[in-house]
Amino acid sequence: APGQRFTARVQALLPEVDAATRTLKARLELANPSARLVPGMFVQLRFAEPPRAKSLLVPMDAVIHTGRRSVVMLAEAEGRFRPVEVKTGLEAQGQTEILAGLEPGQRVVLAGQFLIDSEATLRGVEARLNRSPGASEASAPPPAPEAALHRTPARIEAIEGDTVTLDHPPIPSLKWPQMVMDFRLPPAERRPRGLAAGEQVEIEFRMQDGDVPQITSVQRVAPGAAK
Length: 227
Known about the structure:
Layout: E1 8-17, E2 24-30, E3 56-59, E4 64-65, E5 70-75, E6 81-85, E7 87-92, E8 95-100, E9 107-109, H1 119-129, E10 150-160, E11 163-168, E12 179-184, E13 200-206, E14 214-220
Antiparallel strand pairs: 1-2, 3-8, 4-5, 5-6, 5-9, 7-8, 10-11, 10-13, 11-12, 13-14
């Protein structure tokens, strides 16, 4: 049957790898009228992708793989940046398909500019980018001096190990808006015992390059007392 075309459906991929060719065998199901295909014939196969809706694509360098999730850094109004978790699809020709997490028209930042290679580094970059309202995709603001301390009330959203997620109001000394973000807790002997989600606290912290802000002191406050 030279030159003839047949439409087939992949029925199964056999779970055995050929050690010599490093390939798998596939079982195809197709109509074979008049027995035109017989055992021993060679065929050329072309696998067709199922029809897809119009895809949303971003440069592959814009997708940050932290080891726990895939994230892009979203550029928002007034020079603000925000990490957004995305679900990715196919990758080809330097582009990554985004299945969920972004909308057409949103602006993303190329991850290569920040050398982000872990979840902690991602959180640190988010904090540094949002330190100044003049931040841009092309340049990050200079880090604050290590000795600079900042103070804010906050509400504990979650605690995992030595990391606490806080919902804090705007912080004028850093020109930060209200945010929910992670901070590094001080050693156990330097913080109140039994801190839990939902509690109101007052914290003092400093910035750290490549990591989340480090809390230097934390105190419980009565509900409604934080200002």
